[in-house]
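Case study B.
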Amino acid sequence: MRQIHEFQVDSTRYLDDHGKPLGELPLQAENTDRVLAAYRNMVLTRTFDSKAIALQRTGKCGTYPSVLGHEVVGTAIGQSMAKSDVFVPYYRDQASHILRGVSLTELLLYWGGDERGSAWKNCPEDLPISVPIATQCCHAVGVAAAMKIRDQSRAVVCCIGDGGTSKGDFLESINLAGAWHLPVVFMVINNQWAISTPRSLQSGAETIAQKAISAGLPGHIVDGNDYFATVEALDTAVERAHSGKGATVIEAVTYRLGDHTTADDATRYRTAEDLKRAWEKDGIKRLQNWLHDRGLWSPDKEKALQAECKQTVEKAVESYLATEAEPPTAMLDYLFESLPAALQQQREQIADRYQGGRG
Amino acid sequence: MSKVQASAETRDITLVEAVNMALHRAMADDDNVVVLGEDIATNGGVFRATVGLKEAFGFKRVMDTPLAENLIAGTAIGMATQGLRPVAEFQFMGFIYAGMEQVISHAARMRNRTRGRLHCPLVFRAPFGGGIHAPEHHSESTEALFAHIPGLRVVIPSSPQRAYRLLLADIRNPDPVIFLEPKRIYRAVTQSVKDNGEALPLDTSFTLREGDDVTLITWGACVQETLQAADKLAEQGVSCEVIDVATVSPLDRETLLCSVAKTGRAVIVHEACRNGGVGAEVAASIAEGAFLDLQAPVVRVTGYDTIMPYYRNEQYYLPQVEDIIGAVEQVIAL
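Model:
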């Protein structure tokens, strides 16, 4: 018997659960401005998240998927991407969207039932939030193929959850990325849960990262609560894509600290002990500890940042709540570039029926 | 139809050759047009619809994909959001279903969802219909599945000229189009087609023959049998107006209603099964818009509400000329 192939999957972390370096830190740790900006974005995201949940609980926002526990991964994604790259999200990427330039008001509008929440003005090429699981992976390779056809030095970063990797869309897309040598990074955010289904029931594979091997791609695992490990892996993968060296799969291991959405009750399927253990690994606290130890942070700075983030979120909420709904005719106005004659009558009907409001 | 003028560019070609001619024309006119699908580059497509494109435009724009229809659909969507104009081939309509989630949940709604920020100027082509003694799953006529989805156009040519000119219109259209090619007449008829880049309008039905006694409404391969039936009925003194619907969604109701207002009778002919077919929408539109003009109930000549039989029996499923004549005689008698 002749061995054709053997593979290995590496796993990286630089900080322990308390933010103490386990060894030498990567170069990224020396870029203090970037690390502080990352920390700020994580705090802003968490502040926004708790406010969005509160809005839903008080009837001011629709069903909302908490991003609690994903702030580190999402921030690292946003920081690793160039403005001209294209982000292809799933639906728990608030931290990345904020860095890409999506406004908090737009995020609230989307979850508050208004299509204008995806009309992102500051990142016009990023794909919108994708609710159907894993389907966005196919778009990511399409965008990457367009970049390659046009000989552009740009990259795509595509997010997907651990549950999504069970779908053909993911496997078909990493397969194409390998076959066509595409400039794309698949960021698998393994938060251990697909609503109530644990990671262990999604696949018999020991890691998700190793699925990359079947597509001819490198697969890496990072501690998704470790900012340095995550941003280093992303920086490397994005640079690899920019320089025409092909695609990468990264599995960021983290934990969904909240419910799946505001319509879910995670106490039905996971224990309080599990959740408590996961909180002990929280990536924001970990980075905050590291900043303290480095002399870059203080209780006063933390207090000021919390106040600033709260104010930013409050302003966005005000603007969201002050945004009037589109007229009912808008439901037809963006279906096609111009409304076909066949639909004109229905538009007139809507306009007549709801003249002066929705009585 | 436009008058065909003899020129160096004008050739007598089949419908599948007209598809090929339109693809060549579109790719030559616009660098953003790319073609992808299974076996479409080196092999030129299993029906040869894409033959010569790779040689003319290169692998970068003419792409053999892995064998995964869902991937083909989603990849085309991603390309389209970057401003490319992908034309993706599904080898047979019976295999398009793996891509339905992409078609319905993304291609059809990208413009609406992003309030016009992104859109999908793409064409999904698929050969469809029975009558070529093909294996199971190779004879589907499920255009109604797509016609039901807001945000899609569903366009079906029925002659080489309309194939060329409608496909050009589809590719230039800024929104997603499902282009269903009636493979039973891929090579059954030839027609002079001028390769002049002229497109036909979408969302428009074409009156192929004017008549006073009854309106025959059809699309795709059935246009052939319908025209033959109209010929025979003319010999009996029955004057049939024949309309090729062409864009089955959104429907050009005005053309249909004007014709029925004139003739007072309508027979709808399609190959797909009857239940929930596009014919039902046509009939309902006539009932809503021309009921008082009707002198007889609307009659449908369609496939049966069953699985398309394997080819030994497919002729009993497909509407035949005599079925159409029978239906016309039925409505004329009233």
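The first strand of chain A starts at residue 10 and ends at 12. The remaining cases will be described in the next quarterly update.
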